[in-house]
Description:
Shape: elongated
Distance between the termini: 123 Å
Oligomer: single chain
Amino acid sequence: xxxxxxISGITVLIFAMLLVTAMPGNFNKNTVKPEVSExxxxxxxxxxxxxxxxxxxxxxxxxxxxEINSRYGASVRYSSPYGKFKRIGIPKGKxxxxxxxxxxxxxxxxxxxxxxIAYALMVPNDPYYGYQWHLDNPEYGGIGxxxxxxISNGSGVIVAVVDTGIRKxxxxxxxxxxxxxxxxxxxxxxxxxNGHGTHVAGTVAQSTNNDEGVAGVAFGACLMPVRxxxxxxxxxxxDVADGIIWATDNGAQVISLSLGGDSSSETLEHxxxxxxxxxxTVVAACGNDNEPECLYPAAYDDYVIAVGxxxxxxxxxxxxxxxxxxxxxxxxxxxxxxxxxxxxxDGVLQQTFRKRGPFIRWGYYFYQGTSxxxxxxxxxxxxxxxxxxxxxPDEVRSVLQETAEDxxxxxxxxxxxxxxxDAYAALQWTSGPDTTPPVISNxxxxxxxxxxxxxxxxxTDEKAIxxxxxxxxxxxxxxxxxxxxxAAGTSHSYQVTxxxxxxxHTPYVKCKDEANNTNEVSYSWxxxxxxxxxxxxxxxxxxxxxDSQLNLSWNAVSDAAKYNIYxxxxxxxxxxxxxxxxxxxxxxxxxxYEVSAVDQAGNEGPKxxxxxxxxxxxxxxxxxxxxxxxxxxxxxxxxxxCKCASGIYGYESYEYKFERxxxxxxxxxxxxxxxxxxxxxSYLPVYQVTCTDGEAYLTSEDYYYG
Length: 706
């Protein structure tokens, strides 16, 4: 009799030290010899050789149990606080099968069975490094994650990965974790020593949008690492059952089991039944033997969602099990193919590690198998739970089955179950007919408005087609707008686009959702339409102030909220005042202006009569001016310098400057016009003189004579 638990579907065939974002081809590949067939044949039908699992009937006391064990020469090695079973060490000279029969004959025993061995189920093949086609290709091979992530990322849902544990690599640093447990070493440190559980966990909730590595299905979910398999990928039914029950009792909402065994076990069945009874969704791998039946616990169809594996072209992967217990399929990959022509074999890609002695080598690996398919379904289960589409295991199963992409024969079949899991479709699913009308909110009073002014900000709680009306006439034709609210909570702002008479009005909005449910609201506020424009602006005057500025003024208009200013026929600016300064103009240039009044409702009156003005000619600079041209610092001479700069300005201030400069010699002619330039280097103090025209001039005491 076969009696093993197999981690359904991992073979480490490629070690790639570079990230997914590295250029294709720039990575090292280390092929690992496949040993799957040898492991499976050597461990087929194996169990712990010197112990069995026994569950005594409720009410059987410790004294009775001790007496029974003493009679049989056996002893209790471990009492599970979770599954209420015991690991019983058998006496020398007795076989496991003999002791199972002996205990099963005792009327105080509910059941006795071997403590089977669990180990990793691997699918050997040649490796390649590639992309996550299994996530982001909704039309062919993948599960439609890009659209699904716009709706849910699984935030807050706890997913227990019952496996070899999880090692927190660099690409899991941003992922939420909750406390797990190690049933192999019986401690609170469930660190992965194999790499399989870490790869599986990455598919469930790898850190995403973190500029590193790859993505996970439900990257907002919290991972609960539960280690039940050792560094070689082996474990016992007892540990697996304990792990399932412990995860259930510690808050898991989804349990992902990328493992399976050939033998049915009451211990294992009781564990998944317990999780189901506590409203925990259990997802398990169907197996990699290409056989027409799922392994256990996937075969416990009443309690578990069983998952098979597909390849890129959505055909069943050649290794995947199938059969009457199969519920869904998900991408498991096929490392023999490159159907998407990206140059790499079509495996499922995640970050994990290889361990050689004390050394850990991290990389991004392609794995294949139903182990890789299972966390896709576990992740989607977390998405729908977080989004409120489902809560109980039966509801989750219904969502995933009813929205799966139908493959093979129409409806459910034994090859694909209900079909390929579809994350986006699952998040669109609702149970039963939709009879709930859309909720319409917002709408904002605007006071006095005109036609073409924003009026409504409409928000619906679902996708809907909406239209509006002004006043209750039932025709919805006075306010001409129709729009589609393409997602829940999206606001849409609209304005009055038809001509309404001046006066008070009440807005109405009617929306119809995709199920033809209609809702109508009338807002509790009214608005006043003002379509009367202000009067024409009069007495526009333009005054020249300088060579770069013209000032405007005009008479006020009674109902103006602001004034629009036009220069040479084009809009220039607006102001609430009746004066305006236009600066930065060209000297000696004529500019023409018009001004119009705009009221609170946005109505603009006629433009004023045009008024023009000309800027002054630029002032002639008689003396040396600008940086590094200097005069003597004496205040009287500074005044004289400022005067010669333009002929009209006086002295305002001066200050010291110390720096290496070029000097200019002034030859005094009495008219402030004759200058002689003499260049030389100087470390003498320099003085910056500021004239009342706002210009700064640099001077030095070397420059003025007389």
